[in-house]
Structures are given as C-alpha cells and as structure tokens.
Amino acid sequence: MRAIQIKEILLEHTTEGLRSFIGMMDFELTTHCWCGGRLAPWAPEFALYHQCAECGCKSVRFRPSTQSLQRFYSSAYWYEYQQVHKCPTVEERFEGDMLDRVPLYINWLRGLAEPPAKVLEVGCGNGRLLFELKQAGYDCTGVEMDSNLAALVTKKTGVLVHHGSFPAENDPVYDIIVVIDVLEHAPDQRDFVQNVKSRLSSSGKGLVHCPVLDTLEASIQFRHMFNPLSHLWIHTSESFHKLWHDAGLTALKVGELFNMPVYAIGKT
Ligand SMILES: [Zn+2]
Q: Is 259 left (phi over 0), alpha (psi -120 to 50) or beta?
C-alpha cells in the first residue's frame, strides 16, 4: 500500500483533532502482531485496528515510523496535541493526579515492597507519583521520553528523571518498576517487556496499568482508548498474560482503576 493511500484511510477514519498530526507523520503497514500472529480485520467500528488471530490483541493497521513517534513525543508535538485535546497542563496534572490516581497506586505499590525499596517509573509524566513515593521513603528514579519534561520534573520533584524510554544501563536493578499508561505506546512489545525484566531485582515486581479490553462491547464503550497515533496495541486479558508469560514473568491482577485492571508482574 502506498503512503498516500495509508494517509487517506487514516484521515477518513480519525477525528478532526488528529488530522493535522497525520499530515506531519509517516506510517508503515503493520503486518504481524507482536506475538507473530496474523493480523486480520476486526470490526467495522474500528477501521484503523486489526485483531491478532492468535492472541486477540488489537494492533494499529498503520504504525507511525520510529522517527515520527520520536517527534510526536517531543515537546512541541505533545503539548500541541494535549492542547488540541483540552488535556490538563503538566502543572494541573501534578495537582489533579493526587486527587484520584496517586493514592491508589501508592497503596498497590506498598503491597509490593516497603520503603526504602528502589523504584523506577517508566514514562513518569508530571512526576507526582514519584514525588509522593520519595516523601514516603522510597528511592526513586524516573524515565521520560520528553527531554524538557524530564528536566522540569527533576527540578520540581528532586527525583532524577532520565530522558529516554529506559535507563541506559541495566545496573542498578529495581525492586519496583512502574508502568502506567505506557505499555500501549511501545512499538515493540517484547522488547519493552525484556527491558522491564532485565531491570527487575530477583524479587522485584512490576506494577502495570494499561487498557485491557476483552469484548467488542467493552471496546466500543471505551473507544477513546483506540487512538491510532499513539495507542499501538490494545491488549485483551489473554494477550496481556501471554506477553509477560512468554518472557518468563507472571502477571497477577491486584486491582482495577478507571475500569481497567492493574497488574503486579513478578519473576517466576
Ligand atoms: Zn498476537
């Protein structure tokens, strides 16, 4: 399929707010699921996603190129995108997150390891969770794709936030690795899981929260999760467990937040 045809299909099936970004990005046809399974058309409601015949995971039909994704998550794109979608600013999120999600995540994390455990948050965003964990006595590190945000959060919270998708080295390892609203963005799912695994201590645990949708009805109810520019994979319970299990890790549901499961990941 030619690039121009891909963009025509994307433009036809996306909302107004995404169209200007599509014009600036390059896409390639996604041929296989992360599990190696064949991707086939899924449902008429979701023209931009295919379903894996093997594991049931949903994949974007057209994946932004690596370079386009890097640009997308760089400040200019990201802030413009957030503004288009009337998302709260970093400052507003820093305050607002404490009201709904952060106390709940802290409860689950306390169940995994007590302070002064070493915590890494992948894609830490505004850094509020790390800031609170630091106050509670945890030894915290963050990574963030947006270099400006990484620097800003380091300054604001006193927690070292590296720029990138993971810390450059596997040393040190961590007792807890937090992955919130991040897994669905990772182009290479197996590589992402290996990156988590290689940075977990022998008794280390991951805390993962991402969209997991098992039925078409649930997918329609939460269709805003299907953002074809950034949510590259939408797991089912089956595909989520398979992903971690294939890497020699176990996934155990520990709770639910915003109607999506929260999992603890452990080494078997
Ligand atoms: Zn699959």
A: left
- The domain tally of the chain equals 2
pTM strictly above 0.90: yes
103 in the same domain as 64:
no
Cα of 53 vs centre of ligand 1, distance in Å, is 7
Query: How many whole angstroms from 240 Cα to the centroid of ligand 1?
Result: 10
Specify the pLDDT at position 34: 98
pLDDT digits (tens, 9 = 90+) for 9-45: 999 999 888 888 888 899 999 999 999 999 999 999 9
Tell me the CA–centroid distance for residue 245 and ligand 1, in Å. 13
- Residue 1, number of CB atoms within 10 A of its CB: 11
67/145 same-domain check: no
pLDDT digit string, tens, across residues 196-214: 999 999 999 999 999 999 9
What backbone torsions phi and psi does residue 260 show, to the nearest 5 degrees?
Answer: -120, 145
- Cα 187 to ligand 1 centre (Å): 14
- Residue 219 in any domain: the answer is no
CA of 120 to the centre of ligand 1 (A): 28
Buried-state track 57-86, b at ≥16 Cβ within 10 A, e below 16: bbbbbbbbeeebbebbbeeebbbebeeeee
- Residue carrying structure tokens 């595909």: 239
